[in-house]
Amino acid sequence: MHGAAKSGRPISLFVLAMMNTAVVVGLEGLPEVGSFGLPLVLYYAVFTLIFFLPVGLVAAELGVGWPHDGGVYRWIREALGERWALVGIWCQWLQILIWYPTVLAVCAVSLGYVFDPTMRDVGWFMVAISLFVFWAATLVNFRGLHFSGWLTTTLLYIGTLLPVALAIVLAVWWIGSGRESAIPLEWSGLIPKIDSIGEVVGIAAIFSFLSGLEVNAVHFRHVTNPQRAIPRALLASGLLVLGISVLGALSVAVLVPIAEIDLAAGTLQVFSHVLGPLGVGWMVSVLAVLALAGMVGHIMVWVIGPTESLRVAADDGLIPPLFQRTTEGGAPRNVMLLQAIIVSLLCLLMLFLDLNRVFYFLTIASAQVYLVMYLLMFISVIVLRITQPDVPRAFVIPGGRTGLWVVAGGGGLAAVCGILIMFWPPSTQDMAMGWVWFTLPLIATFVVLVGAPLVLYCFRNPQWRGRPGMPSSDETRSAWKRMD
């Protein structure tokens, strides 16, 4: 896939759909969604319609219209200027930053299952493994090394899609053999019973688990007949993501009582719950290794962060010289060091706070910040259709101006509603938090995270532009690239 993108060879509809699926689906979200029970089927269908597909369609039009290095940064800059472009890539980087501890927790739990599942309750073990994995990934990327597209994708497939598929098979076998499900499996159970806004907040976390399609937009220009192929690929990947995520989360809900679901270990709990009594508990260790490989694949994909965007921002003089320094391989050294230090501090929270609550808070904060970037992206596609209508686009959102406003306007409205509703403290069956320990810290976190790039922009220095510390986007066009 990497080779196709690099050489210009056409990408098939199947490959594009699988790339989209691999970058969106992850083990870390299944336990949290599984706690919703059977109504998660309806939740995912709604979120796919109002968010997942609009993101894909908008990213497709922007990706083929402005297929240059910089991605989201360049799209927003073309439409709204450098200030909001900086906000956009800042939010993209920060959501990854906040997301790391959640996926690192899954790494630590997976390794714990290889030796002793009770290790997931040992704080120092969770922190030590999380720090080791992340700093190792950082140091590897310091050398400019990267997994090729096929290897990264293979890691994601065998470490994510394979365990999820097996969990689904086990759940089906469990029910088919007459064993009791942990949730009632009745048609009436599909209808959610929402008694408070706090329950909606928990559901809104699905935004975070359906994000990421924009990272593959660079590949859309390599599709034959994009106006026809891209919508089909998005539909296929939407169905795949919906099917894998829904069935994977349901397998957790069917086999693990909601009150016992561990947000960092839910999928492995499925295997432990079923395979242990069958006398093949050793398979849990094997599957834990696979899950660890999948999580490492995710981290290796994302650890560089929006590097191409940072290079373009550096060309524009928006990044202080201190953070323009790169390694010989072209990796942004000081940005990655800062990232590793912040992630390390976040991981230390595992020593002092309930892991489930830390996991949930970081998931919500990550989703809110990411939705700010998506809101800017939705606005940008509308502005660019109006201000730059003559720019060639191999793909445009179907339906003319009406289709544009329905897709981008609807997606933007969903993003705004998602940001606002997530400030309300959750009150789901497995997670209840109050205003003092949830809403107030979340408001402070949101204001600081989104306000920081606006402050940084005010202090930008024209002399930062064109510094030799970070290669320009043109100089690195044929060099290494982050492969999602």
Structure, explained:
There is one protein chain. The radius of gyration is 22 Å and the shape is globular. Helix 6 (82-115) packs antiparallel against helix 16 and helix 8 runs antiparallel to helix 13. It has a single domain, classed as Amino acid/polyamine transporter I. The N and C termini lie close together (10 Å). It is mostly helical and 484 residues long. It has a two-stranded antiparallel sheet. The model is unreliable at 1-8, 145-149 and 469-484 (pLDDT under 50). The chain has 18 helices and 2 strands. Strand 1 and strand 2 (431-432) form a beta hairpin. 65% of the residues lie in helices and 1% in strands.
What is the fold's blueprint, element by element?
Elements: H1 2-7, H2 13-24, H3 30-34, H4 40-65, H5 72-80, H6 82-115, H7 123-142, H8 149-176, H9 197-204, H10 206-209, H11 226-255, H12 266-275, H13 282-302, H14 307-315, H15 333-347, H16 355-387, H17 400-421, E1 427-428, E2 431-432, H18 435-458
Antiparallel strand pairs: 1-2
In short:
By secondary structure, the protein is mainly α. It has 18 helices and two strands.
User: What is the chain-wise order of helices and strands?
Assistant: HHHHHHHHHHHHHHHHHEEH
Beta-strand content bin: under 5%
Helix content: 55-70%
What CATH architecture label applies? Up-down Bundle
Taking all Cα atoms into account, the compactness measure Rg is 22 Å
CATH superfamily: Amino acid/polyamine transporter I
Q: How many DSSP H or I helices?
A: 18
CATH structural class: Mainly Alpha
Strand arrangement across the biggest beta sheet: 1-2
From the N-terminal CA to the C-terminal CA, the straight-line distance is 10 Å
- Computed structural class: mainly alpha
Number of strands: 2
